[in-house]
Write a structure and sequence with these properties.
alpha/beta, Rossmann fold, 2 domains, elongated
C-alpha cells in the first residue's frame, strides 16, 4: 500500500480527488502539486505520482527519482494523443471520444495504457462538448482505477491497447486558430467546430497588420 501519494492536477479537481484518495487510503501522506516546482520539491523515492488532466510535462529525472510507475489520466482516447485532444477530434469530426490512463514516460502520451473509458459523441460535436464528455470519462476512469492505485503497490497491468494517431501540439493548435481571408466555407466550419468555441483561444484573422478576433 503506498505510504505517500502525489496528486498533480488543477486547483478545481484537487479537493475532490484528494478526498476520494483519502477515503481509499487514510494512512497515506497525500500531497497536492499544482506546479512543476511543487512536484519537484515533493517527489521522493517510493512516492506514487498520479497526474490528472494536467498540461505539465513531468521531467524524466522526476519519474526516475520516484522509482516506481507514475500514472497519467489523459483527457482523450488512445487515438487522440497530445495536446487539446477535444479540439482536434472535433476538427476531424470524430464521434468516439473518451479518456485514457497510462504509465508516464519521458515522451508524453506514449506509456503503456492501463485503462480506457470510451464515450460516443453526437455527429458535429464541437470542442466544448467533447471536452465535457472527455472530462466526465476521465472522472469515471479515475473512479475505477484510483482505489487500486491507492491501496496496492503492484503496478497496474496494461490492457493491450496501443496509442494510435498523430500526437498533436500546442503550436499546431495555435496555428489552426489563425484563419486566412481565402478560407473556404467547409474548412471554416471545421475550424469553428474545433477551435472557435473556447473564448480563451478565439479564432482570429490578421489582415494588413491588424488582428481581428472573432466574437462569441
Amino acid at each position: 500500500m503506498p505510504s505517500e501519494i502525489l496528486l498533480l492536477t488543477g486547483a478545481r479537481e484537487a479537493p475532490h480527488l484528494f478526498e476520494f484518495l483519502q477515503r481509499q487510503n487514510s494512512l497515506a501522506a497525500l500531497h497536492y502539486c499544482g506546479t512543476l516546482a511543487q512536484l519537484e520539491a515533493a517527489a521522493r523515492p517510493g512516492a506514487l505520482l498520479i497526474a490528472f488532466l494536467t498540461g505539465i510535462v513531468v521531467p524524466e529525472a522526476v519519474l526516475q527519482r520516484l522509482g516506481r510507475p507514475a500514472y497519467n489520466f489523459h483527457p482523450g482516447p488512445p487515438h487522440c494523443p497530445g495536446r487539446y485532444p477535444e479540439s482536434f477530434a472535433a476538427y476531424r469530426g470524430e464521434t468516439r471520444f473518451g479518456a485514457t490512463a497510462h504509465v508516464m514516460t519521458r515522451r508524453v502520451d506514449e506509456g503503456e495504457i492501463v485503462g480506457v473509458e470510451f464515450v460516443d459523441a453526437p455527429a458535429g460535436a464541437g470542442q466544448m462538448q467533447l471536452a465535457e464528455l472527455g472530462y466526465a470519462a476521465a472522472i469515471r476512469l479515475f473512479g475505477r482505477l484510483a482505489p487500486r492505485l491507492a491501496t496496492d503497490d503492484a503496478p497496474l497491468p496494461g490492457i493491450g491497447l496501443a496509442w494510435s494517431g498523430r500526437k498533436t501540439t500546442a503550436a499546431e493548435y495555435d496555428a489552426l486558430c489563425e484563419i486566412t481571408p481565402d478560407i473556404d466555407a467547409e474548412e471554416f466550419a471545421r475550424r469553428l467546430r474545433g477551435f472557435g468555441e473556447n473564448p480563451a483561444t478565439p479564432l482570429h484573422l490578421t489582415l494588413h497588420g491588424r488582428r481581428f478576433v472573432m466574437g462569441g
